[in-house]
Structure formats: C-alpha cells, structure tokens
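Quick board copy: two proteins, each given as sequence then tokens.
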Amino acid sequence: MKYARLTKEQFDELHAEFSNFLATQAIDKAEWDSIKENRPEVAEQELDVFSDLIWEGVLSRAEFLEHFSRNHIFLFQCFDTHVQSIVLKALVPEIDFLTKEGLQWLSDNMFTDNIEMKVGKKVFTEDRNASIFELIQQGSFLSDGQLFKQINTIIES
C-alpha cells in the first residue's frame, strides 16, 4: 500500500465509487460478500488498492495545504516539481493560532515585529504525491489557498 487505508467514514462517503471500483473488476455485491467472508485477505487488498486510487486522485489535484499549530502556521503551494512555503511564527508566546482570538491577533499583527515570516521553496526529491501525503500525515490539510494567496500577494508587492 502506497498511502493509507481510508477510514470507515471515508469508505461510507465513497460507497458508490467503491461499488463502481468493484464492478470494474466484475465483482458484484454477492461476490464481494463472499470474498469478505471466505477470503478476507483479498478483501483487505481490494480496500487498499481502492484507498490508494482515491489518495492518488486527491493528491494529484492538491495545490494548497495548511497546517496550524499553537504558535506556527505553515502554508504550502504545491507545484509539479516543488513546494513553496510561507511559515508564520508568533513571537508572543501566549498567542494560540488554534483559537479564534489567536487568528484575530494574527490579522491585527501580521506585518509587525510580533510575527516572524519565512518564505521557502523545496524541490520534491521523491514522488510529488508521496511528499504531499507526508505533509498531510504530519497534520496538514487541503485548503483553497486563500490565506497563502493573500500573504503571497503582499510579500511580492
């Protein structure tokens, strides 16, 4: 397995897609029930293959990621060969970016000495999608990129 198995909730959400996936392999509901009952290792393999297919599609389309922690915000824009990053760090220890108040404080203090901002670029040394998946495993989530774009526009002007 290249990525990670989808959760039960994710499989529930993708029920129709999973049924289509099984149908492409000429597996109907009765046969799937039989496989689960009599050959659970084959069922596990099918779940893993489907999970990887879903992850591959999601990761291939991924453009922006965000990761919030107490004192840091990591913003990423993913390209074919590299990832651009903007890292914001609160230099006031009691600020917590995981709260509404912390985000308001960020808005009020964005371009002051209370925020350290670093911009970076990292070339993918391995498979692009595997690199993006690693960021997700570390706590990043897919985003619309609005915050990245706003900050990047200000930085570039």
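And the next:
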Amino acid sequence: MATLFTRIIEGELPGRFVWRDDRCVAFLSIGPINPGHTLVVPIAEVDHWIDVEPATMARCAEVAQLVGKAVQAAFGRSRVGLMVAGLEVPHTHLHVIPFDTEGELRFERARPDTPAEELDDAAERIRSALRDLGETPAT
C-alpha cells in the first residue's frame, strides 16, 4: 500500500506544494512546528533515509537548502533547521523548520489544528520567496 506521502505526491490526497521536480517534492506540513514548516520528500518511496539512492538524497538536500532560504526570507526567523527523523510516515522526509531558539525544534510543538488559510498563506509566501530567488516553485 502506498504511503501517505506517495498519495499526496500522486495527487490522491491534497498537499500544499512549494517545489516539484523529477526526484523530489516539497510541501507544507499539516502539523507545523512553526509557520513555514515544510517537508522535502523523495518521490521514490523509501522508508529510511540511509537507504535512499545517494543522488536522490543529494537532490533532496539541495532542494531543502533552496526551500530553507525561501522559508527564512518569507518568515524572517533567525535560523532554519533541517531534521530527518522519519518516525511519523514510513517514507523518507526532511523537515525544514524556521526557528529562533533551539527549544522550538520539538515535535510536541506541532500544531495539527492549524487553519487551512494559514497553511495556504505560508505556501504562497514560500513560493513567492522562491520566485524572488530566481527559482520556479510548484504551483
């Protein structure tokens, strides 16, 4: 059975995409730790990040860096963290999270009740910042 992320990638479930290419996608977390929390996910369904094909993992890291720059510009936080945990969904994903203090980087701070309008606004802000960086975001 396809993972939740594969179902989002294939359009079976909705996702607020900010990036898509032939190896990976980036979409907003529906339970963000902070506004702008984005997931970078390889299209290939691989459970553990250490098993992802190296070129694909490198591309995901490259996209995470681009998205991180856009997130920082869009939300004005002092830092953008990158975490690979992989317990929530058995499909590799990189968490790109804007923050100001290390204490903010805790999954128990996730907000699963974030209003749809807030998520839509965050996605548009990131896509706009990607355009400002000369990139072509997902639409």
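Board note added afterward: The CA atoms of residues 24 and 49 lie 13 Å apart.
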